[in-house]
Write a structure and sequence with these properties.
The protein is of the alpha/beta class. The protein has 2 domains: 177 residues, Cytidine Deaminase, domain 2 (3-Layer(aba) Sandwich), CATH 3.40.140.10; 117 residues. It has 11 helices and 10 strands. An 8-stranded mixed sheet has the order 7-6-5-4-2-3-1-8. Strands 9-10 form a two-stranded antiparallel sheet. Helix 9 packs antiparallel against helix 11. It is elongated and about 110 Å long. Component of the eukaryotic translation initiation factor 3 (eIF-3) complex. Its main location: cytoplasm. It is found in: Cytoplasm.
């Protein structure tokens, strides 16, 4: 028996499959009214607050302290419930300062995918809700932050958020965390890739209208809160001397670093303000140069059109056929109007450095007046 006939015999010996009934249509139950606000499938509930777990705060602070450079960024993981974006975990992204942009972006993408896959395997939070960015002296306006947040707002639920962490404030003992997202007017101009002067006027865009701040709160684990309360509560120590036996001691000794009158931070802040102003003036010079080039090309095109019209009028008066009209845009390459986005971002940096300088100078002056009053001078 040949192979085809054997296969046919085996097929004939098998029982004929019975026709299965068509599957019943799935029945979906309506979401209870009590859960309609929590289960926001269509993301119709707007974000009203961002909640950071204490674990996320410590991770971001540790990353900013241990990073060799100021380029500190990472992803935020969590879930949005009833208009509150709960950030329960985070992980840092590697920084490749010496690699080219394409190689660095591919490496970061592979690392990000590997981390999310590992978190999913151990049943951890793997839902990306935004990213965090560390900065110094409050100056977080830059092109990288805007581009990354724009991508997140197009792909994530509720657009995601960016958490800005000020390393310089943390070094002074004040952990600074702020949540932002891009405004709708800026996103409209960004999608059109048009930041010309007319576009800024129509969208009413200034540097303060690029980002909108979202209220942020920090949730502490109850066990952590209890532990901190125990450390901060005074307790009697049996190891003190006879004279100090009745005195109370603290598990966490007080810090007097806030009384330091050093002004090294002010000098650094002034340098940053001067550098940001110089960068802004350079950018404005480039914009002015491009605007003059555009004006010269437009003048040449208008002169050419006027001359051609005059020649045609003379030819018609002489009974000759007018010369054909030519496409001016092909003869004269008029550059596009320069983008003003970089100028706005630099203005935002100048404003942030100035506000940080105002705060630092105010605190330093207060300390100096307090020290002078205490010394009786």
């Amino acid at each position: 028996m040949t192979a085809p006939s054997m296969a046919a015999a085996l097929a004939a010996s098998l029982p004929t499959p019975s026709s299965a009934p068509p599957p019943a249509a799935p029945v979906y139950e309506a979401i209870p009214a009590s859960m309609s606000t929590a289960i926001d499938i269509e993301a119709e509930i707007p974000l009203t607050c961002v909640q950071l777990d204490a674990l996320v705060v410590t991770k971001i602070v540790q990353h900013g302290r241990d990073a060799p450079s100021a380029s500190v960024h990472g992803l935020l993981l969590g879930l949005d419930l009833e208009g509150v974006l709960e950030v329960s975990n985070s992980f840092p992204l590697p920084s490749h300062a010496n690699d080219d942009d394409e190689k660095s972006s591919k490496s970061i993408a592979r690392y990000q995918a590997s981390m999310l896959r590992s978190l999913k395997e151990v049943q951890g939070d793997d839902n990306v809700v935004g990213f965090y960015q560390a900065t110094t002296l409050g100056a977080f306006y830059n092109q990288t932050l805007v581009d990354t947040q724009a991508i997140h707002q197009e792909r994530l639920r509720h657009g995601g958020v960016v958490i800005v962490h000020d390393i310089s404030q943390t070094a002074r003992g004040n952990a600074s965390f702020r949540a932002f997202k891009l405004t709708s007017s800026f996103m409209d101009a960004y999608k059109r890739a048009n930041f010309s002067t007319s576009s800024l006027i129509s969208h009413r865009l200034v540097f303060s209208a690029i980002l909108e701040e979202i209220p942020l709160r920090i949730r502490t684990n109850p066990l952590t809160s209890a532990f901190l309360n125990v450390l901060a509560a005074p307790s009697s120590s049996p190891y003190t001397s006879t004279q100090l036996r009745s005195a109370d001691t603290l598990a966490v000794p007080p810090s007097f670093s806030v009384l330091d009158l050093g002004n090294s931070g002010l000098a650094r802040n002034l340098e940053q303000v001067s550098e940001a102003i110089d960068n802004y003036r350079t950018e404005e010079g480039n914009v002015a140069y491009l605007s003059r080039q555009i004006g010269r090309e437009k003048l040449r095109a208008e002169t050419y059109v006027a001359k051609r019209k005059e020649e045609n009028a003379q030819r018609v008066a002489q009974g000759l056929n007018p010369l054909p009209e030519e496409d001016v845009s092909r003869l004269f390459k008029i550059p596009a109007e320069p983008s003003r986005l970089e100028s706005m971002l630099l203005l935002g940096q100048v404003d942030a450095y100035a506000k940080s300088l105002e705060s630092s100078a105010g605190i330093s002056l207060l300390k100096m007046y307090g020290a002078r009053a205490g010394s009786g001078v």
